[in-house]
What does this fold into?
Amino acid sequence: MKKDYKLPDLSSARRRNKEKSERVEFSIEDKYLNLGEGKKYHIITHGCQANQRDSETMAGIMEALGYTVSESTDKADVIIINTCAIRQGAEEKVYGEIGALKRQKMKNPDLVIAVGGCMTQEENTVKNLIEKYRQVDIVFGTHNITSLPELLYGVYESKSRKIEVFSKMGEVIENVPVSRFGKHKAWVNIMYGCDKFCTYCIVPYTRGKERSRRYEDVLFEVEELKNQGYKEICLLGQNVNAYGKDIYDDYDFGKLLNDVAKIGIPRVRFMTSHPWDFNDGMIEAIKNNSNIMPYIHLPLQSGNTDVLKKMNRRYTSEKYMELFDKLKKELPGFAFTTDIIVGFPTESDEAFEDTLKMVDHCQYDNAFTFIFSPREGTPAASMEDHTPKEVKEERLQRLNEKVAYYANLNNQKFKDATVEVLVDGISKKKDNVYSGYTKENKLVNFTGDNIEVGEFVMVKITEVMSFSLNGVAIEK
Ligand code: 5AD
Ligand code: SF4
It folds into this structure.
């Protein structure tokens, strides 16, 4: 194969410049518009909310090209795999999936397999895909989603593979089509990328520099969602506290939260806030708007200051605790969750105990816990790591037991309470059993009659578990 592509490289992905991100309007050239006529697409999504939202963009572009959605891979003419690179396990799953598609491709050589998302921003992954996975026709990076029309056209025209992965991106692209997967809950990107460079994390490399969308564009999208009847939105960014810093002097996340809340969608959430720079403006906005939901995800990562320093988290355990206590005091009734990594290189038994102590202090409603996974090209991947795997696994188990204990303790407050639930779905196993979330983001399974997905229902909680609540809908 003629090499007409450039491999991504992590060292240039690391570089940052001070230039403001440029705003670019997306459009599809006329010659691509009927590319998908009579054809079907299927997207497999891995990873975080940013990927979910990217898949909705991919779906929007595919539909703009005339493709229709296929619920399964076997009837699809184009299969897109949107990958995640956050931990080794996520990557292995994707390789397994691509491997399994080989058979389908052999049966149907016209099938187009496209691989996108965070994994394709890694040099070695792209090399691997090109050399060992001949069934893959298109490899496109997180910055190249809007090139899908051109890439597909290229595959159909030349019957050859297409690879396009940019290592850096300084743009914010607007007016991109979207086909949302949910009818009552929507993701809204407010910024892309991350400049924090926590030493274990691949995201700043795969998603590029922090780029905020203009607030007018965000507010316009939220207005549209309100007019379409959406009940809940979640403002998305790797680090929402940094919103606006790259383009404004006097408009920040606190202001955006206020302005978004005023539009009046019943439930407004945001994801994820870094403890660094969680400022008073944000707290005020949250306090002043009852439609901003009482739920905050505040990643801790470690409770030990030395480890935090090696992680480049920019706060000490004392500072985290101070912020946590302030939020808890100022925002009564809020639920708090966190992310924690165990087995980071140099984490000693004592350092791990500090993490447990912090969990005892914060008594989180839930925590997402992970064993450190070295990511090639990140500083932590080359730090010396002497902790045996079994010790890391044991730490994870001890941590999880503690997390479950406090999750249960927090949920006890809901016993016999009546809560508002936004209905997400109907149980596949049992008739009249529904599920949804409370304002505090607690999962509720409940029974009821004549209930529709997307409506608010008052539910009386009858039974409390560590990670979910059971209840009965109150007669309307
Ligand atoms: N190993 C383990 N966990 C990681 N996370 C990010 N990078 C890694 C890694 N290399 C976790 C962090 C982050 C969450 C999304 O994933 O806890 O907050
Ligand atoms: Fe990764 Fe840290 Fe950025 Fe979060 S803030 S995406 S953990 S580098």
Notes: The chain has a mean pLDDT of 95. The radius of gyration is 23 Å. The first helix runs from residue 10 to 14.
